[in-house]
TrEMBL record:
SUPFAM superfamilies: eEF-1beta-like
Translation elongation factor EF1B beta/delta subunit guanine nucleotide exchange domain ranges (all copies): 3-88
GO molecular function list: translation elongation factor activity
Organismal lineage: Archaea, Methanobacteriati, Methanobacteriota, Archaeoglobi, Archaeoglobales
HAMAP family from the UniProt entry: EF1_beta
Signal peptide from the UniProt entry: none
Function description: Promotes the exchange of GDP for GTP in EF-1-alpha/GDP, thus allowing the regeneration of EF-1-alpha/GTP that could then be used to form the ternary complex EF-1-alpha/GTP/AAtRNA.
Organism (species): Geoglobus acetivorans
Keywords: Elongation factor, Protein biosynthesis
Name used for this protein in its record: Elongation factor 1-beta
Pfam families, per the entry: EF1_GNE
Length: 88
């Protein structure tokens, strides 16, 4: 079984959301099998910034969906988009 690299763009609900706190919430919300390898911040527009989350996980059916659903369930999150997904 292989591993999957995934880069996610997490959009906060507004400019007032503290991205450092959001990082902590994402770290706690992820499934145990998922390893977060990096966080980044991407300016969007008008002061809004997205949180970029880079993860590696087993190539197991449904684990990516579970990860996205758990992040979307966080109160401060507006949306989650997959920017890159590939086998490693």
């Amino acid at each position: 079984m292989g591993r999957v690299f995934m880069k996610l763009r997490v959009m906060p609900k507004g400019v007032e959301v503290d991205l450092e706190q959001l990082k902590e919430k994402v770290s706690h919300a992820k499934p145990d099998e998922v390893e977060i390898t990096d966080f980044g911040i991407q300016p969007i527009a008008f002061g809004l910034k997205a949180l970029i989350v880079v993860v590696v996980m087993p190539d197991t059916e449904g684990i990516g969906d579970t990860l996205i659903e758990s992040i979307q369930a966080i109160d401060d999150v507006e949306s989650v988009e997959i920017e890159v997904q590939e086998l490693v």
